[in-house]
Design brief:
Membrane topology: Multi-pass membrane protein
Number of helices: 23
Family: Belongs to the major facilitator superfamily. Sugar transporter (TC 2.A.1.1) family.
Structural class: mainly alpha
Number of strands: 2
Largest sheet: 2 strands, antiparallel
GO molecular function, one term: monosaccharide transmembrane transporter activity
CATH architecture of the largest domain: Up-down Bundle
CATH topology of the largest domain: Growth Hormone, Chain: A
Helix content: over 70%
Order of helices and strands: EEHHHHHHHHHHHHHHHHHHHHHHH
Organism: Lupinus albus
GO cellular component, one term: membrane
Shape: globular
Distance between the termini: 34 Å
C-alpha cells in the first residue's frame, strides 16, 4: 500500500500508510450506507407495483390501475397511507438516533453499528412476511431504527479511522454505498416486477437482508476507532489500534498524545448536548443543521423515493418508469465515484457551488417542460420531451451525488471537536431524518397541489443554499479533525467571532502554539 504522511499547521508530521486494515474496515462499515440506500430505492419501486398496491393500498390501486376517481395526472399517488409507508422509516430513525448518540459514546462506534445490523435484519423479516399494513409499517419502523443507529455511527467511524489526507474519500464510501444500494434496489424492482403471481414485491423487500447481514458481520469483524477506545479509557488498546491502522510503530506518539489530550478535554464536558449550544460550537452547529435542511430540500429524496412513481405520473409505462429509475440510480453511483476522486483534490466548496448551478438549471428545465406538456387530464409528453426530462433528472442527480449527497455527511463528521462529536452527529442525523420525513410524507401531496411547480419550489431552495455555501462554509480539505478550530474557524470572516482562544486544545492547534 502507498505510504506517506500529513503535516499539521504546527509543523508536526503524523506518519501514516493507507493500510489494508483501514480500507477493509471502511468498506465493511460503509455497508450501513448500502442498507440505507436499498431502503430508499426499494420503496419507490414496490409502491409502483400493482399487486403491492392492491394488497395494501386499494385506493391508490383504483386510481392508477383501474383509473377510477382520478382528479389529475399529478394526483394518482396522493395517499397519506402510501406516504406513511415510506416516511415512517425516517421518523423511527429520528427516535433511534437519540439512543444511538449514547451508545456511540459509551459503548463505541463498532457496537452501535452491530445494533444497527440486528435492527435491519428484524425489519427485513417483518416486511418480507407482511400480511397486512400494520405488519408492513412495523417492519419499516425496525428498518428506520437501524438507519438511526447506522447513520449515527458510520460517518464518525469513517472520519476517525482515516488519515486526514484521504478522509474525504473514505468517508464518501458511506454515500457511495448508499448509491449502490439505490441502484441495486432499482435493478431488483425492475426484475421482480416481471414475476408472475403477484409476489415479486416480497422478493424486493426480502433482498434487503443481504446488506443487513453484511453490515452485521462487518461490524463484528472491524476494530473500533482509536478515538473511541481512548475516549472510553482503553489507552493501550487505542495505541495498539492506532499503530495497526497507521502502519507504523515509530511515529504514532504525537498523534496518540493529541488524541489523549482531546479525550481529556472531552471528558471535562459533562453535558455534550448542552455544550453544543455554547458560543464556540456555534459554527459547527449552524453549518451542520443547515447542510441537512438544504440536502433534503434539493428535492433529491423526492426523486429517489418516488422515481418510478414520478415517471409513471409523467406518462411513462410501468416498465419504462422502472427502467428510467435504474438509469438515474446508475448515474447516482458513477457520480459518487467522481466525488471520491475529487473531494480531497478540488475541495468541498468547489463541488458544492458547481453542483448548485447544475441542479438549479436542470430543475428549471424540468419545470418548464412539464408546465407546457403535462396537464391535469392530458399528457402530451412525447418521446423526445420524455428523454429530455430523464436527461435533466440525471444531470440533477449527478450534481447532487458528487456534492450535497456525500458532503452533507462528511463536513459535519469532520468539524465537531471530540467533546461534542457524538452529540453533534446525533443532531446532524436528527435534523436530516426530520427533513427526510417531511419530504417523504409530503411529496406526493405537494406534487398533487403544486403540479410542475414542485420543481420551481426545489430550485428556489438550491439557489438559497448556494448563497449560504459561498459566504458561510469554509474549506476543510486536508485539515486534521482536531485542528479545525485554529486552521479553519479562526480564519473565517464570520465564524472567527465565535471562537475563544481558551477553547482551543493546547498543542492541537497551531493557533495555540
Amino acid at each position: 500500500m502507498a505510504g506517506g504522511g500529513f503535516t499539521d499547521g504546527g509543523g508536526k508530521e503524523f506518519e501514516s500508510k493507507i493500510t489494508p486494515i483501514v480500507i477493509i474496515s471502511c468498506i465493511m462499515a460503509a455497508t450501513g450506507g448500502l442498507m440505507f440506500g436499498y431502503d430508499v430505492g426499494v420503496s419507490g419501486g414496490v409502491t409502483s407495483m400493482a399487486p403491492f398496491l392492491k394488497k395494501f393500498f386499494g385506493d391508490v390501486y383504483r386510481k392508477t390501475v383501474e383509473e377510477k376517481g382520478v382528479d389529475s395526472n399529478y394526483c394518482k399517488y396522493d395517499s397519506e397511507g402510501l406516504q406513511l409507508f415510506t416516511s415512517c422509516l425516517y421518523l423511527a430513525g429520528l427516535t433511534a438516533t437519540l439512543v444511538a448518540s449514547y451508545t456511540t459514546r459509551i459503548m463505541g462506534r463498532r457496537v452501535t453499528m452491530l445494533i444497527a445490523g440486528f435492527f435491519f435484519m428484524a425489519g427485513v423479516a417483518f416486511n418480507t412476511s407482511a400480511q397486512n399494513l400494520p405488519m408492513l409499517i412495523i417492519g419499516r419502523i425496525l428498518l428506520g431504527s437501524g438507519v438511526g443507529f447506522a447513520n449515527q455511527a458510520v460517518p464518525v467511524f469513517l472520519s476517525e479511522i482515516a488519515p486526514s489526507r484521504i478522509r474525504g474519500a473514505l468517508n464518501i464510501l458511506f454515500q457511495l454505498n448508499v448509491t449502490i444500494g439505490i441502484l441495486f434496489a432499482n435493478l431488483v424492482n425492475y426484475g421482480t416486477s416481471k414475476i408472475k403471481g403477484g409476489w415479486g414485491w416480497r422478493v424486493s423487500l426480502g433482498l434487503a437482508g443481504i446488506p443487513a447481514v453484511l453490515l452485521t458481520i462487518g461490524a463484528y469483524l472491524v476494530v473500533d476507532t482509536p478515538n473511541s477506545l481512548i475516549e472510553r479509557g482503553h489507552l493501550e488498546e487505542g495505541r495498539a489500534v492506532l499503530t495497526k491502522i497507521r502502519g507504523t510503530d515509530i511515529n504514532i506518539e504525537p498523534e496518540f498524545l493529541e488524541l489523549v489530550e482531546a479525550s481529556r478535554v472531552a471528558k471535562e464536558v459533562k453535558h455534550p448536548f448542552r455544550n453544543l449550544l455554547k458560543r464556540n460550537n456555534r459554527p459547527q452547529l449552524v453549518i451542520s443543521i443547515a447542510l441537512q435542511v438544504f440536502q433534503q430540500f434539493t428535492g433529491i429524496n423526492a426523486i429517489m423515493f418516488y422515481a418510478p412513481v414520478l415517471f409513471n405520473t409523467l406518462g411513462f409505462k410501468n416498465d419504462a418508469s422502472l427502467y428510467s429509475a435504474v438509469i438515474t440510480g446508475a448515474v447516482n453511483l458513477i457520480s459518487t465515484i467522481v466525488s471520491i476522486y475529487s473531494v480531497d483534490k478540488l475541495g468541498r466548496r468547489v463541488l458544492l457551488l458547481e453542483a448548485g448551478v447544475q441542479m438549479f438549471f436542470s430543475q428549471m428545465v424540468i419545470a418548464i417542460i412539464l408546465g407546457f406538456k403535462v396537464k391535469d387530464h392530458s399528457n402530451e409528453l412525447s418521446k423526445g420531451y420524455a428523454v429530455v426530462v430523464v436527461v435533466m433528472v440525471c444531470i440533477f442527480v449527478a450534481a447532487f451525488a458528487w456534492s450535497w449527497g456525500p458532503l452533507g455527511w462528511l463536513i459535519p463528521s469532520e468539524t465537531f471537536p471530540l467533546e461534542t462529536r457524538s452529540a453533534g452527529q446525533s443532531v446532524t442525523v436528527c435534523v436530516n431524518l426530520v427533513c427526510t420525513f417531511v419530504i417523504a410524507q409530503a411529496f406526493l401531496s405537494m406534487l398533487c397541489h403544486f403540479k410542475f411547480g414542485i420543481f420551481f419550489f426545489f430550485s428556489g431552495w438550491v439557489f438559497i443554499m448556494s448563497i449560504f455555501v459561498h459566504f458561510l462554509i469554509p474549506e476543510t480539505k486536508n485539515v486534521p479533525i482536531e485542528e479545525m478550530t485554529g486552521r479553519v474557524w479562526k480564519k473565517h470572516w464570520l465564524w472567527k467571532r465565535f471562537i475563544d482562544d481558551d477553547n482551543i486544545i493546547k498543542g492541537s492547534d497551531p493557533a495555540s502554539e
